[in-house]
Amino acid sequence: MNYHLQSFFKTLPVSLNAVRNHRCFSVQFRTRICLDKTEMEENGLSGGSEVVVADPDKLSNKISAIRAAGSAKLQVIADFDATLTKYWVNGLRGTSSHGLLRQVNPEYDMKRRELYYHYHPLEFSPTIPIEEKTKLMEEWWGKTHALLIEGGVTCDGIKQSVADSTIAFREGVGELLELLEERDIPVLIFSAGLADIIEEVMRQKLHKSFKNVKIVSNRMVFNEKGCLVSFKGKTIHTLNKNEHALEMAAPLHKELGDVDEPTSDNSSVKTRTNVLLLGDHLGDLGMSDGLNYVTRISVGFLNDNVESSLDAYRNAFDVVYLNDAPMSGVVKLVSQLW
After folding, report:
1. Is 0.85 surpassed by the pTM of this model?
2. Which residue ranges form the domains of the chain, and what is each CATH number?
């Protein structure tokens, strides 16, 4: 294990019981990575969070490879809901970027909820073939988008919906994005939700835009009165939310929220063949499928049902943060990549 990974581990707030129960680390690593509450506070990290690394040597090799290639070869791909944002807010399930939207006519909110209750179980059904499930997701998103148009969504309504919502970023997200912006490292935020809402959430909750951040999501088209009239490009849903969406999405923008200067040139992103991937779902690992990457470090946030899902997550992700952890551990990890 190299020095940089040792330094990374020393900053990680880890539950000793989690390590013992799940046996993700060999005995030689337990003392090194387990910190008591006092030491966590001295390092400026919030107490109570836990992290699991199934293969420390593999992670060490990946960190070394990315460092050797340099930051010019690195990009970050991140999911939005429950990855950059909190899963729990004030003891309640946090609002998603899609779910926070309230239309002028509450009847349309109810109709969208009815679609959710119908299609959401189908999305996770283990018996439906992927081809059929993909068609169902396209159907769900198409009906939902039609309701948004018919129900009279407006720019002002989006701003008010965000202001009234309980959506919140994990502690440390702003610090992470600022660190990546300083290094000119592009961040692609992938979402099956709505780009316009995500941008508004970032404006209101982070109070700044980031020149290196691009949103790959469904983008709305408004008329001169600020009313939603259509959507740009092909629909991005949960089963096609990956690097291929770069070609499917509405024109990507040079700056967050800059709708006047679109660019279709993704070459600068595609030449960055080292990836830090952040997600909260096993399916988020597919966000880098369309990129011919050399080295990828995958970070998973296991927010709920930890006991039943930990084995699957630790086998899939290089690093797993448990129980809706803050982003501080990822900030420490990123600082070891150059």
Report:
1. no
2. 51-87+167-220+236-335 (3.40.50.1000), 102-152 (1.10.150.340)
